Amino acid sequence: MWLVAGLGNPGKKYSWTRHNIGFLALEEIIGRLGLEFRERPGYNICSGSIGDEKVIFLEPLTFMNRSGSAVREILSKNSIVHENIIVIHDDLDLDCGRLKIRKKGSSGGHRGVESIIQNIGGNAFIRVKIGIGRDPLMLTEDYVLSKFRKNELPEIKEVIVAAADAVECIVKEGADKAMNRFNPVAGK
Length: 188
Description:
- The protein has one domain: Rossmann fold, CATH 3.40.50.
- It contains six helices and seven strands, in the order βαβββαββαβααα.
- It has helices at 21-32, 67-77, 111-120, 140-144, 153-173, 175-182, and strands spanning 2-6, 38-40, 43-50, 53-60, 85-91, 99-102, 126-131.
- Helix 1 crosses helix 5, helix 2 runs parallel beside helix 3 and helix 5 packs antiparallel against helix 6 (175-182).
């Protein structure tokens, strides 16, 4: 069994903001599978299959900095090993529209990822990082909550599709194959 969590902030005010790219990618996946979320206290959830694998899809609704409580709750109700958790989230250190998969590691300063690490007591879960870039003229807090610019939307829509493809690849073929296929080549 797998858990795929997309990170973001709840509410229309935050839809299509940079910090919500994890929600957008997760919604792409469940749309492909013909699933719909059910709202529960603290999160949206649904389950289905990717290939032969059962998957729980989760959108924490506790705001980014407290995402880990929803992940912990789902883990407490299901037998899912940390290595079968995939977290989709934004990454300021990747250029806008880039994608990178990591099997484990630190939070890299991402508060949603840090919340998950603290709540589940480990960092050995897979990350699908979606680049949102940086704007040196904006405070980080303002930038991550800003909407994508019109000229960025084509590449953002492409990377959302790529992130969904990457999650499917991870579940069906493993993280190493997905990393080889989706991670940027050095020098590109």
